[in-house]
Prior knowledge:
This protein has 8 helices and 14 strands. The protein has 225 residues and is an alpha/beta fold. It has 2 domains: 2-120, Rossmann fold (3-Layer(aba) Sandwich); 126-222, Arc Repressor Mutant, subunit A, CATH 1.10.10.10. The protein starts with a strand and ends with a strand. The model has no long low-confidence stretch (mean pLDDT 86).
Amino acid sequence: MRILLIEDEKQLSDAMLAYLKGEGYDCDTAADFNSGNEKIHINKYDCILLDITLPGGSGLEILRELKKENPKAGVIIISAKNSLDDKIKGLDLGADDYLAKPFHLSELNARLKSLIRRKFFNGSEEIKYKDFKVNIAEKTLVVKGEMIMLTKKEFDLLLFFLANPSRVVTKESIAEHLWGEEMNAADSLDFIYSHVKNLRKKIMDKGGADYIQTVYGMGYKFAEK
């Protein structure tokens, strides 16, 4: 899952970034209103961790713009302000949760996992699809009773397909989702083919169906043929 952390307190931002990356999230950061607002218009994120009080403007205005640009994105407001009015304003604008500072990083992770399950997988921690099942928390894939070892990128790619069943997803959207701003330095997207090929092979080698369809000139679609 791809996350944008908008937080101006550098020490807190650095700690959150290190923790989230250690938990397997792909995470971009912004430290002020202008950079945060710019990134939500340029990139598509699954979840935004948003401080309300930012240099240059209000995080609530970013939230308002985000819901126009990417209404499906999850939002957790993170702020030292713990007043009822701030919480109500954020929730009214479309935020999904509110976490007051100071907080434990493990609590943030628990809130994130809960939000991802609600937003993309109907609240379930285990996704069952045809002849396999995926455990989001444990990051495991079982096909016909056999565990398959996936790399982090392969697991994230599988979740991306499962969150967009029967939809055509482009190579560009896959690259942006899995690699974020690191993709700015890439010369081509040919490596996407390798990740898709490896994931397809691992599923089929255990007797699973060939769910990943190539849509020539467009991208890929995850659906049973």
